[in-house]
Specification:
Layout lengths: L18 H6 L4 E4 L1 H4 L14 E4 L7 H13 L3 E7 L6 H15 L3 E5 L13 H6 L8 E6 L14 H14 L5 E8 L3 H13 L6 E6 L4 H10 L6 H8 L2 H4 L6 H13 L5 E7 L4 H10 L12
Helix pairs in contact: 3-4, 8-9
Organism: Litoreibacter albidus
GO molecular function, one term: oxidoreductase activity
Keywords: Oxidoreductase
Length: 307
């Protein structure tokens, strides 16, 4: 049965919608954590039915809280994609237990596999590739793995792209043997031109996995700079630093309008561009991000009777 309580803002309350951005935002996804999800009384008032919602697993979060959040979102009609951070999973038995809980209690069919943010592995796993090799996700319908448009110093300490690129080639080959739909979900970035250059470069290297590009949602500038430094965002951090030097913009909240307008225009002019969807990191809050998406024409998913 369709959920009826999601409504767009009336046109009189909305910004003028850019049709290219509106098209680019179709089927966007968004990320939550159990502790932030608890603050949302009703997701159905914010997110269209069928939205893919990633559940971020931060080190120290009990698996019970993760599964409960996934079950709630699934019951509300969302496509739930929990994180499986390799470095916080002790061993194969723990991994199999988590998979069983998600499938049995929350009907989870999708997962994001990544190394995770901790420096030292807690057990046997160090990378998403090791998780894939276990075969534990053999009956999942969709698997996403990480992409890094600006590199990742945890993987390439010298700041280069060698190890990241080799990992992408491995993931590409794995996708060719998997029954699951696979895609790259990326770290957030703020500058469109390097994103486009990276997307084109991996396509030229033979990687045809569709890209779900990470975009930071509206937030205070100071908040974004803090998260960008903590997450190792690279050259595009300069976009924020330049904005911080402009006293007329320093106190204004950041919105992703500029980067998304640029990417949307490129996609409109290059239909084969390999960025398929937008994935929001709601660093300024889920409600703030969801309302921005609504105001800019964002919608997601399909009616329940068409899934």
């Amino acid at each position: 049965m369709a959920l009826l309580n999601f409504k767009r803002k009336p046109a009189t309350d909305a910004v003028t919608v850019n049709p290219q951005v509106e098209s680019f935002l179709q089927d966007y996804s968004i990320e939550v954590m159990p502790r932030t999800a608890e603050k949302v009384e009703d997701f159905r008032a914010l997110l269209p039915e069928g939205t893919r919602v990633y559940v971020a697993h931060i080190d120290g979060t009990p698996i019970e809280d993760m599964v409960a959040t996934a079950a709630r979102l699934n019951a509300d009609g969302y496509k739930v994609m929990p994180h499986f951070p390799a470095r916080i999973i002790k061993d194969r038995a723990t991994l199999v237990d988590w998979v069983a809980r998600y499938q049995g209690e929350a009907d989870v069919k999708q997962a994001l596999l990544l190394a995770g943010g901790v420096t030292e592995p807690h057990g046997d796993f160090d990378s998403s590739m090791q998780l894939l090799e276990t075969g534990a996700f053999g009956d999942f319908e969709r698997l996403h793995v990480a992409g890094h448009p600006e590199g990742n110093r945890d993987i390439d300490p010298d700041g280069g792209m060698k190890n990241v690129d080799e990992a992408l080639l491995w993931k590409q080959k794995f996708s060719e043997t998997s029954d699951a739909q696979m895609a790259l979900a990326t770290q957030f970035a703020f500058d469109a031109e390097p994103i486009i250059a990276w997307a084109n470069s991996i396509k030229a290297a033979g990687i045809d996995l569709p890209v779900h590009i990470g975009i930071a949602g509206p937030a205070k500038l100071q908040t974004l700079i803090k998260f960008a430094i903590a997450c190792g965002v690279g050259p595009s951090l300069k976009v924020l630093q330049k904005r911080a030097m402009d006293v007329t913009k320093l106190l204004l909240p950041y919105e992703p309008t500029e980067v998304l307008t640029f990417l949307a225009a490129h996609k409109a002019n290059n239909p084969d561009f390999n960025i398929e969807s937008v994935h929001f990191f709601p660093l300024g809050g889920i409600k703030t991000n969801a309302n921005w998406a609504i105001a800019n024409g964002g919608a997601s998913g399909v009616p329940a009777d068409q899934t």
